[in-house]
Write a structure and sequence with these properties.
Helices cover 73% and strands 0% of the residues. The chain is mostly helical.
């Protein structure tokens, strides 16, 4: 995971812990295969980090389908992480009973990859988006798909560290 070095080079010494956590959460994750990299890409998109997105995409770590699915899941969560809390915050029973009527066709195909990975990417983006409803929904679905609490912990850890790296990079450049 050489691409991590490119991200770490952008992080100043005052955020050394964040730099070290990139390896600890992504390179040494309990997630299978390249899932940690896809989760990091989804988090970078949700955190609006063009630099980290570009570094991950250009790394060659993910297939075109994996990259597309991570970006698709994050784009959908950018909408859902706003819509569902809005509906809940209104406390309007009529609004809650109405269909969202928001296009989400990518869910039918899981963004072109398997359901478990697409849901992991959606969870990562929702953690950044801080939508408790989306987080709960994706977390529960992933538990039923057989993911362990440790794996789900690692999705959250990756999202947290990528979010912090995004903030540090934006503040330092």
């Amino acid at each position: 995971m050489e691409f991590l070095n490119s991200i770490k080079e952008l992080i100043p010494d005052y955020a050394k812990d964040i730099r070290l956590n990139l390896d600890g959460t992504i390179a040494r994750s309990s997630l299978e295969g390249k899932d940690a990299v896809g989760v990091a890409l989804a988090a970078a998109f949700a955190a609006k980090s063009r630099k980290i997105i570009d570094i991950i995409i250009e790394s060659g770590e993910l297939s075109e389908d994996e990259k597309n699915a991570a970006l698709t899941a994050s784009a959908l969560m950018g909408m859902n992480n706003v819509w569902y809390p809005y509906v809940e915050m209104t406390e309007d029973p009529d609004l809650k009973g109405q269909p969202a009527q928001l296009r989400m066709n990518a869910y039918a195909s899981n963004g072109g990859i398997d359901k478990r990975r697409f849901e992991m990417y959606a969870l990562s983006a929702s953690i950044i988006g801080k939508c408790q409803y989306c987080i709960k929904s994706h977390f529960d679905l992933l538990k039923t798909e057989g993911m362990s609490s440790q794996q789900l912990r690692d999705v959250g850890r990756i999202a947290a560290v990528v979010n912090a790296a995004t903030q540090v990079i934006a503040a330092s450049n």
